[in-house]
């Protein structure tokens, strides 16, 4: 199928498909006229790539996981599993940092709120959701 057909079937732009190819994430063949052609398996591969991107993985990390997709084995699966655990740990660390930032911001808001005259309408009367501040539940 041609690039436009693959884009239509996957909901991914032709620009993104070209980028995937440049990054070594997607293979195509070329017609004599230079047009890209993809096999049926590209549809599933794009869905897999989209899940990995949605999980926050970089192109470089995804490239390192592709052997598991192309040639599944204990060795490639173990390597992919370890890499995914590393990525999850990085994400939890990042979320922890964001949580500390959010807590600091909430403290500043509370301090500012305490010093505002009662006659001033509070544009944010609600309290933040407690679970949004606890990244520990993400690793379960």
From TrEMBL:
Q: What is the lineage of its organism?
A: Bacteria, Bacillati, Actinomycetota, Actinomycetes, Kitasatosporales
Does the UniProt entry include the keyword GTP-binding?
Answer: no
Boundaries of every HTH merR-type domain copy: 1-68
What is the name of this protein? MerR family transcriptional regulator
Region listing for Disordered, in residue ranges: 114-140
- CDD domains according to UniProt: HTH_MerR-like_sg3
The molecular function terms of the Gene Ontology recorded here are: DNA binding; DNA-binding transcription factor activity
A Pfam family of the record is MerR_1
Keyword tags? DNA-binding
What the entry lists under InterPro entries is as follows:
DNA-bd_dom_put_sf, MerR-type_HTH_dom, MerR_fam
């Amino acid at each position: 199928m041609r690039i436009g057909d693959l884009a239509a079937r996957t909901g991914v732009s032709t620009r993104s498909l070209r980028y995937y190819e440049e990054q070594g994430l997607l293979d195509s063949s070329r017609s004599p006229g230079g047009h890209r052609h993809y096999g049926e398996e590209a549809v599933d591969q794009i869905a897999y790539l989209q899940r990995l991107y949605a999980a926050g993985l970089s192109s470089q990390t995804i490239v390192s996981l592709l052997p598991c997709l192309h040639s599944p084995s204990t060795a490639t699966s173990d390597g992919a599993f370890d890499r995914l655990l590393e990525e999850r740990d990085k994400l939890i660390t990042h979320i922890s940092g964001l949580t500390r930032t959010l807590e600091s911001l909430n403290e500043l808001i509370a301090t500012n709120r305490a010093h505002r005259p009662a006659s001033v309408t509070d544009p944010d009367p609600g309290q933040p959701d407690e679970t949004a501040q606890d990244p520990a539940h993400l690793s379960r």
